[in-house]
Amino acid sequence: MKDNKERLSINIAKLYYESDYSQQKIAEKLNISRPTVSRLLQYAKDQKFVQINIIDPIKDNSNLEQLLIEKYGLEDVKIAYTPLDTREEIKKSISAKAAEYLYSITKDGDIIGVSWGLTIYNLALNLKPKMLKGAQCQGSCQ
């Protein structure tokens, strides 16, 4: 049963994202309801069968980051962009950018210090696993 659901969700995702069929047209072609198509598209995203990557040329802040590095003599700068100016969206954007940066700079043998706080919590939610040799955690790691 699960294999059928997975296969159907993948087929629907291909029709929707690759063939540009509307949800209604998919429903008609497969003789299922439009809400079922919508649920299966969401299932495909939840199962990571579909991963959406938005390329936003405005989001490229590398020039501004470089200007800040030069002006203030900083080692590195990362700018987090958010589509909405709300506390929740800003927190999500900063946390995701911090997790991405932490992933990019950690290497074998590093010691990572951890503190408490909502920002650190949200950063942790965005971390990706990375196998490192000899890495250590300092603070409340468990």
List the helices and strands and how they pair.
Blueprint: H1 2-18, H2 23-30, H3 34-46, H4 62-72, H5 87-105, E1 111-114, H6 118-126, E2 136-139
Parallel strand pairs: 1-2
Can you walk through the features of this model?
The protein is mainly alpha-helical. It has two domains: 1-47, Homeodomain-like (Arc Repressor Mutant, subunit A), CATH 1.10.10; 61-139, 3-Layer(aba) Sandwich (Rossmann fold), CATH 3.40.50.1360. Strands 1-2 form a two-stranded parallel sheet. Helix 5 crosses helix 6 (118-126). It contains six helices and two strands, in the order H-H-H-H-H-E-H-E. The longest helix has 19 residues, at 87-105.
Q: Taking all residues together, what is the mean pLDDT? A: 87
Can you tell me the CATH topology of the largest domain?
Rossmann fold
Number of domains: 2
What is the CATH architecture assignment of the largest domain? 3-Layer(aba) Sandwich
Q: Give the fraction of residues assigned to helices.
A: 40-55%
- Taking the alpha carbons of the first and last residues, their distance comes to 38 Å
**What oligomeric state is this?**
single chain
Morphology call = elongated
Protein structure class? mainly alpha
Number of helices: 6
Give the SSE string: HHHHHEHE
Tell me the total number of β-strands. Answer: 2
CATH class of the largest domain: Alpha Beta
Enumerate the strands of the largest sheet in spatial order, edge to edge or round the barrel: 1-2
How big a fraction of the residues is strand?
Answer: 5-15%
Q: Any idea what the radius of gyration is?
A: 21 Å
Low-confidence stretches: none
**What about the largest sheet?**
2 strands, parallel
Keywords: DNA-binding, Homeobox, Transcription, Transcription regulation
Pfam families: HTH_23, Sugar-bind
InterPro entries: NagB/RpiA_transferase-like (IPR037171), RNA_pol_sigma_r3/r4-like (IPR013324), SorC_transcr_regulators (IPR051054), Sugar-bd_dom_put (IPR007324)
Protein name: Homeodomain-like domain-containing protein
